[in-house]
Amino acid sequence: MSLDEAKAFLRVEHSDDDQIISALIAGARTHIETQSQVALITQGWRIVLDCWPQHGRIVVRPGPLKSLHAARFYDLNGNAHTIDTQGFVPDYGGSVLAFVPWAVPMPGRATAGIELDVKIGFGDTVEDVPESLRQAVRLLVSHWYDNRGGVASAGQSAVLPSTVAALIAPYRMFSI
Question: What is the pTM of this model?
């Protein structure tokens, strides 16, 4: 969401709060990504593993998985070796990388011996993000803008407004 779009949604015609509104946009996007475990705009992430999962499936969080760009493992001397990404089968719907466990080389070092570079997110532009998630960002920015002084009382946590929670619920990715 651009600053101009946010100001139009909030019906703000002055520029006094531009810095605040920009911060609210960034915060709302991050909050929705955290709550739903999805990346709204395409992002590059590196997954680091100590060893390969025995069941041959790597759940990519946050999602949704767009592609696997590179895979490598490290030998005992700490040298990186490329793994052919064609050995992985991406399940885009489940945001999972599947592989045959016996077909991948075992890392030589015990810690952080495997690196996978993935692209996640709905797309490169705002228009690629589902409308309901864009509306969730708008509503959260509006809620925070209208309730700037509100804080949770002792023993309570800040609750996501129910309309925002309902909009992101279908996209939530849960880790098992």
Answer: 0.79
